[in-house]
Amino acid sequence: MSNRQWTLRGAHTEYTVAVPEHGRWLELVAWGPHGVGEGPSPVAYTGPTPFLTAGDYAPVEYATDAVRPFAGAELVVELPTGDRRVSWDFQEATGDERQLRVLFTDPVTGLRAEHRYRIADGTDVVERWTELHNPGDTTLRLVQAASAAFNMPTPHGARISYQWGQWAQEFQLDHVDLGQGRFTVGSAQGVPGHLFVPWLAVRDRADETGPAWGVALAWTGSWEIAAQRDTGGLTRVTAGRHLADGPLELPPGGKLTLPVAAGAYSDEGLDGLARVWHTYQRELAGDRLGRIRPVLYNSWEATGFAVDAANQLALARTAADIGAEAFVVDDGWFIGRHDDRGGLGDWTVDEAKFPDGFDTFIAEIRAMGLTFGLWVEPECVSPASRLYAEHPDWVYAVDGRPQTLVRNQLLLDLGRPEVAEFVHGTVDGLLRRHDIGYLKWDFNRPRTEPGRHGAAAPVDLDGAHVANLHRIYEQLRHDHPDVIIEACAGGGGRTDLAMAARADVVWPSDNTGPLDRLAIQHGFLHANAPHLLSSWVTDAPGLFDPRPRSLAFRFVLAMAGVLGIGADIRHWDEGQRAEAATWIARYKQIRDVVQRGEVHLIGGPDRARCAVQYTAPDGATVVVLAWHTGKLDGPGLLPSRPLRLPLRGLGRRDVYRTQDGQEYSGSHLTAVGLPAQWTAEHDAELIVLHRR
Ligand code: DGJ
Q: Per the database entry, which stretches of residues form a coiled coil (predicted)?
């Protein structure tokens, strides 16, 4: 048995799997902190299995319907005869402590499945995926093809944390208790979507601040993550593609690599799990983490589609005065784009809006010391555009069926090579022709029609779209290394680990209303690192949450990741501009700590205590952003003892000094907490502590 057992080692965790004597599957032995495997397996099952099979109870890593006929399988394959029940015979394994390949084959069809594992450098995240190869001479239909299953011991019941949402209310963190049965989140939209985040966390109900396991997916199409707890106390989380358009075909000789499903472990609850994901996403960002994500101004909320050189320059002048570093012209700069009914597809500058020429306009922005940024939505097309007139067959469509418009637009079939070439050529051309240092890539509709014009056989539309999207992002990053790319999909509709690896920042929501935004960012930071969190200060009351909060609150909130401004600053008075300039200057001093520091989420948006602590990698600087979540006036607001914000991860005997000269011991900050005294006028704070 020992020669069929392998242990992968992360920074603080280990993950051990084994092939049992019978060789029919790979199963988990232990997953947790270093040394967790030294003792009886917490997930092994040796009890009776009445009315079920052994595989239904076992902590199987990747099951076919032959292995788990009743409890649910990751892979269901159908032969042309309609026969199912592909099953595995173990063949071989290779690997070391950082990566592993375990090969199984099906004795009837010859189907080969390689289970792949990798632990990214310095992280506690196990990447898992499966590679399928059909060496036989018949086409196999994949009715179900998830990437991996993760097994977690939850003897006292499982507490599942997940994030739901809708447009303008993304990343709502919520929890359900799972006794027995199944809890599923996913998307059938051809995009991760606003409804759920491809992220899930599991804890045992008896210990919510202790061990926490997380699963997230690197797939920018339709997906599903399901948690199932059995009567033996095992919670099994399956993650992968959701084949919303029907089975995939694996022709003779065909190969299919399923997307990475990542598993994270922390013994510090959900908060610790967030840090594990942050470390991993920093690893995904690689050397691009070092790029300065500029303090930007974005014109969308100020001018909407009514973009013109005069109003953009007016905004840019003020933006430069208060300290912004980039100016992004959002939607509305190209021909035919006066509202959301036209223009998409015809990516030519509207000269009427830029009468002196676009490059002259950009040069004026650059002369103000600002990087120039531009919005695009290259996968979409307006029915009234020239592009659609010339290539009506380029959009997704089911022949003979009506097409569904969402936001008055259609979706290009990016899986077609000529469409991919057009999309890449459009964006690449803009970046080559103009002095652009920042790109906001938007996507404002899901895919509705599961069909390709003239296709003779079923096509993996989702797979082809996602593959080309990723390829184009990679190509653009390679060819234009200095351009920062922001991913957006009508807010946070396209946030997954694959995008975290390819975009520099993500726009999480169109909702910038202060208290709503606080909840959105709280959820976002549980799954995503602060360097990805794009956030703007907008006018109050704005388009969304009208509950009043100060300008300070809105700045401190937008500083929790990558600061931006979206307000109509042409109308700000001198006092507001001066205050903004002060906040922006302070942000520039602390952004390194915010974007790369160790995060502790203190309390939450629904609690009196609500703050985020960022500790610099060397521990010498601690930044705390804190917000008042309660009422700003009325009874109950008589001055009282200050609220306390307990900090984490500090040296108990170390002394920390604030910018005002107040000193605290690490013990005090940990056991008692940093004081915050809220009033109607003082509803947020940025505190910087330096270790003496
Ligand atoms: C949706 C985005 O989320 C907004 O920020 C803005 O770019 C609009 N699209 C433009 O149409």
A: none
What topology does CATH give the domain 5-286?
Beta-galactosidase; Chain A, domain 5 (2.70.98)
Distance (Å, rounded) from C-alpha 331 to C-alpha 353? Answer: 13
Distance of CA 380 to the CA centre of its chain: 22
Please tell me the distance from the alpha carbon of residue 11 to that of residue 537, in angstroms, as a whole number: 37
Q: What's the gap in Å between 584 CA and the centre of ligand 1?
A: 24
Give pLDDT, residue 2: 54
Whole-angstrom distance, CA of residue 672 vs CA of residue 609:
13
Q: What is the pLDDT of residues 282-331, one digit of tens each?
A: 999 999 999 999 999 999 999 999 999 999 999 999 999 999 999 999 99
Give the homologous superfamily in CATH for domain 288-377+417-442+462-593: Aldolase class I (3.20.20.70)
- The whole-model pTM stands at 0.98
C-alpha pair distances (Å), 236 with each of 8, 36, 154, 487, 581: 19, 19, 10, 31, 50
Residue to substitute in 331, 333, 341, 486 for testing ligand 1 pocket (most ligand atoms within 8 angstroms of CB): 331
Domain residue spans of the chain? 5-286, 288-377+417-442+462-593, 621-691
Second CATH level (architecture) for the domain 621-691: Sandwich (2.60)
Within 10 angstroms of residue 180's Cβ, the number of other Cβ atoms is 11
Ligand 1 pocket test: pick from 375, 439, 441 the residue with the most ligand atoms within 8 Å of its Cβ. 375
Separation of alpha carbons 436 and 430, rounded Å: 8
Model confidence band, residue 646 (pLDDT cutoffs 50, 70, 90):
very high
Q: Which residues sit opposite 163 in a β-bridge? A: 173
DSSP codes of every residue in 189-255? SSS--SSB-SEEEEEETT-SSS-EEEEEE--SSSEEEEEEE-TTSEEEEEEEE--TT--EEE-TT-E
In the structure, what pLDDT confidence band is assigned to residue 3 with cuts at 50, 70 and 90? confident
